[in-house]
Design a protein that fits this description.
Radius of gyration: 15 Å
Largest sheet: 2 strands, antiparallel
Length: 125
Amino acid sequence: MTYVIAQPCVDIKDRACVAECPVDCIYEGVRTLYIDPSECVDCHACEPVCPVEAIFPEDELPRHWAHYASVNAEYFEPAAPGPRAPGGDHPLIAALPAQSPAKKEISVFAVGKEAAADADLWFPS
């Protein structure tokens, strides 16, 4: 089993998951992030830090986003379907309409691993 990034990440790319991933298996496309299934060690570190709840274990993907398992896997195949420039997106992601601007406001609350370690939640400054 591997973790999969689904549609809520499109046009958000909060990157909190990238900071948490101990094996650096999360890569950035133009509009979304992708998890390389051959590198993911199923550590669960990325899922709880995602502010838009876009990361799921592969076998727990909601039915309407089940195709994102193949989208994430195909992104890392050398002969991915359709043209994709380095750092580009999977053709399915590239074809999606722009996501809601209100959704983007959610990501302002993300904190990187380094900043979270310095935070004293009991005595805020």
